[in-house]
Amino acid sequence: MKKLGVLLGAAALLLARGASAEAVVRRALVIAHNGSDDPSLPSLRFADDDGVLWAETLQRLGVETTLLVDPDEATRATARPVLAGARPPTPDEVKREVARLRAANLVDHELGRQTDVLLVYVGHGNTDEAGRAYFTLASGRLDKASLYADVVDPLGASYVHLIVDACRASGVVGSRGGQTDAAVLAELRGMLAREQLATRPTVGAVFAESEDGETHEWSRIRAGVFSHVARSGLMGAADINGDGKVEYSELGAFVTASLQGVKGLPSRLSLHAFAPTREPRRPLVGPAPKGPSLPLPSGLEHSRISVEDSDGRRLADVRRSKEQYVLLRLPERDVYWIRTPTQEARITLAELSTSGIIDLGDRELQERGPAEEALRKGLFAVPLDKDFYERYVAASGLAPVGLSQAFPPSAGGAFPRFMARQSDATVGWDLGWTGQQAPLGLSTLATGPTVTWRREAPLPSLYYGARATYGLTPLATDDIRTHRGALLGLLGAQAPAYLRVPLFLEAGAGWGFLGITRGQVRMGDPTVLSTYTAAGVTGALAGVRLRLAATLTYDRVTLDQRNYWDRAFGFELALRR
Predict the structure, then answer these.
(1) Could you read off the pLDDT of 100-148 as tens digits, one per residue?
(2) Phi, psi for 220 (deg, rounded to 5)
(3) Distances (CA, A) of 543 to 323, 325, 388, 447
(4) Comparing C-alpha atoms, which of 197, 199, 137, 131 is closest to residue 166?
(5) I need a surface site. Which of 193, 255, 277, 387 has the fewest CB within 10 A?
(6) 78-94 burial: b if 16+ Cβ within 10 Å, else e
(7) Residue 518: which of 434, 436, 440 has the closest Cα?
(8) In the beta sheet, which residues pair with residue 427?
């Protein structure tokens, strides 16, 4: 018995270590600094706001996050909880936090766990008198040598992911970074370039730059454009295969698609994404814990969605194809504003976990000026769909994710029963073709066209409309052919989108007629009471929206002075418009 206990204990320990080995502990160090040590560069406006949003986003995604920031007065006034433990972004604080992260990583390694550290920097990028690139800290600098020797390498993490937004600000749509010539731009790029990372196979990097070395801030979102787009992607907008993880190829494709439509600025942004060479498909973030989440189901009418908080801070943006499912995992707020380019709705945190409909009302666009207009129209103008993703991966050389599965909600995040009204699914026309049993019990098939018009009802998931059908028996039975037509009122119900099951059920009643021909003999009943029920599914095939249904009709017909109900089973395939 004692030996058995020892064996069981050993087995339990091995299983525990095996389970721990599969776990990945994610930590992050976010460094954000508005200031500059170069008198020719004015202080940034939103680097500190970006730092706060980066910390909140990563914490929501299950990443243990430390924030080093010296917030300005406006940012301190927000009293965000992450600011309570924030420390200034000085060289000493960076070294202190790197040492703490190293100690925590070593403990996890002893327990058999892998560790990933995300290092996020938002601030000024510049070069010194000798042409060496550096990032600005409070009372100090972080140059290429110290970035790797004093920060990246000492972390002792299994993998390190660098995300850098290093630039300067001016005007309503400002810029981050100095006015750089080609040599200075090359030096700044060299701090994070593929050649630098080649000797570190467990380090990856993501950063953006423009043709003249500047990237951009936008006062409308109170953030840097690249940081905002990257955060939106990590929240779930970039998760093209719906597995709850965001890999380099997914984030790279999403940021590239989101920036592609921006025109009218002095220079265009482009993305550089280098995955760790040892594991090219290493995710930057994994499945998120339960928390505030906004599902955007396939078939949703609105493809361009923005989420803001009650203070007007933009939390996330996404441009999706109508067939794509997206689950945005949002930082916690008491109130959210869901906005499309022309409409908006206010929802509370509690409503994110309850079933309901977003009642979108008209909104006013307040952006002004050519740069504001360029960003408003161009940013997130291109959706990240399968075609764009595959073209991006082919061009970038990054390892692709598998796209064989649909886009289910991740098991790692809450799936709130919450949706926007799918008006495109319940308003429009169906043009179809039906086949059913021939009337009067004839042993043949009747077939013909159908036309259905639908309009959304005031109650959720319900619609009403009208339906017209005509059917004949193309093959005569005993030289008998039938002609049947009907014009019906219609009432239907569609499964709520949060169920992600495209089922519908509808019924109708109205006027019909039935005609019979046999040779030169014609007879019929023009006053038939006709009823109809159907159940089926909707979907898309090669971009064409379809509807497939099983049908049942009952007609009250008069034959030989007798009234009786004539039943017919059938099917219908229709194009949806």
Answers:
(1) 999 999 999 999 999 999 999 998 887 778 777 788 899 898 888 888 8
(2) -60, -35
(3) 8, 15, 15, 26
(4) 137
(5) 387
(6) eebebbeebeebbeebb
(7) 440
(8) none
Contacts for 149 with CB less than 8 Å, ≥ 6 apart: none
Strands 24-32 and 114-123: parallel
Q: Is 153 helix (H, G, I), strand (E, B) or coil?
A: helix
Task: Specify whether the backbone of 373 is left (phi greater than 0), alpha (psi in -120 to 50) or beta.
Answer: alpha
Task: DSSP for 10-65, please give it.
Answer: HHHHHHHHHHHHH-EEEEEEEEE----SSTTSPPPSSHHHHHHHHHHHHHHTT-EE
3-state secondary structure of 190: helix
What CA–CA distances, in Å, run from 193 to 127, 183, 508? 16, 14, 65
Query: Is pTM beyond 0.85 here?
Result: no
Q: What is the pLDDT of residues 156-206, one digit of tens each?
A: 999 999 998 875 322 222 233 444 445 545 554 555 555 566 778 999 988
Tokens of 78: 């927000």
Distance CA 232, CA 411 (A): 20
Interatomic CA distance for residues 577 and 574, integer angstroms: 10
Residue pLDDT, tens place only, 78-107 = 888 999 989 999 999 999 999 999 999 999
